[in-house]
């Protein structure tokens, strides 16, 4: 059972998400919060698998709440998915940097929301390829010159290659076609790179690809 916490200051939004999610046999809404402070308290107490977190909330906004959650070792298993009104919300970039696993537009299709919730539990990306590439382009535009570091020293050459492809926004299926391997093999390489680098999820792997200098601005295909 996938345990979900809803954090949004709009009651109708929470009610709509709850009705959809609770109707699924494998998903359960374990709590609701109307602001970031309440959400943080519930996350610490309930330890949900996923938090659907609105970016703009009173008392403590979604971005600050996400930073708190991702900074606490005891909450390492909790995944945060940001909710936003617009795909290009100005805070989405910072949310990924803060440790969010991705983001969803509030008016997304019900099937897409359900697919996304299930995907994040499996450690997959919660961003469509188009949105991922826009996010990466934004990261590239803002990123500083990477510092020389041996953060990738533990990776094999193939894992570096796969990580670079993740960094330019390719899905596991696209990576598999590029390297002429099976999607399962591609996913395994991605997972191993995440474990070795301590990345919470695929979104953070993208950030690390840029910060380490493995991928540079202008490499988008």
UniProtKB/TrEMBL annotation:
InterPro entries, from UniProt?
CheY-like_superfamily, NreC/VraR/RcsB-like_REC, Sig_transdc_resp-reg_C-effctor, Sig_transdc_resp-reg_receiver, Tscrpt_reg_LuxR_C, WalR-like
Membrane-crossing residues?
A: none
Sorted alphabetically, which keywords does the UniProt record give?
DNA-binding, Phosphoprotein, Transcription, Transcription regulation
In this chain the Response regulatory domain maps to 3-121
Q: Where on the chain is 4-aspartylphosphate found, per UniProt? A: 54
Q: Which SMART domains match?
A: HTH_LUXR (SM00421), REC (SM00448)
Q: Where is the HTH luxR-type domain?
A: 148-213
Q: Which GO terms describe its molecular function?
A: DNA binding
Where would one find coiled-coil regions in this protein?
A: none
Q: What highest taxon heads this organism's lineage?
A: Bacteria
Q: Which CDD domains match?
A: LuxR_C_like, REC_NarL-like
User: What Gene3D superfamilies does the annotation carry?
Assistant: 3.40.50.2300
PANTHER family in alphabetical order: TRANSCRIPTIONAL REGULATORY PROTEIN NARL-RELATED, TWO-COMPONENT RESPONSE REGULATOR
Question: What name is this protein filed under?
Answer: DNA-binding response regulator
Q: Which organism is it from?
A: Streptomyces violascens
């Amino acid at each position: 059972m996938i345990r979900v916490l809803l954090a949004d200051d709009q009651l109708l939004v929470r009610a709509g998400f709850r009705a959809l999610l609770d109707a699924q046999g494998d998903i359960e809404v374990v709590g609701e919060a109307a602001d970031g402070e309440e959400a943080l308290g519930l996350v610490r107490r309930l330890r949900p698998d996923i938090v659907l977190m609105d970016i703009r909330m009173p008392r403590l906004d979604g971005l600050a709440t996400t930073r708190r959650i991702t900074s606490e070792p005891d909450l390492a298993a909790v995944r945060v998915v940001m909710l936003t009104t617009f795909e290009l919300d100005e805070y989405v970039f910072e949310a990924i940097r803060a440790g969010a696993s991705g983001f969803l537009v509030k008016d997304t299709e019900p099937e897409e929301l359900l697919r996304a919730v299930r995907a994040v539990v499996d450690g997959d990306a919660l961003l469509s390829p188009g949105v991922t590439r826009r996010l990466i382009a934004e990261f590239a535009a803002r990123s500083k010159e990477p510092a020389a570091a041996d953060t990738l020293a533990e990776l094999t050459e193939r894992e570096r290659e796969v990580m670079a492809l993740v960094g330019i926004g390719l899905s596991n299926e696209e990576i598999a076609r590029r390297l002429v391997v099976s999607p399962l093999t591609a996913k395994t390489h991605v997972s191993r790179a995440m474990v070795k680098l301590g990345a919470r999820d695929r979104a953070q792997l993208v950030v690390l690809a840029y910060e380490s200098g493995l991928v540079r601005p202008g490499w988008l295909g």
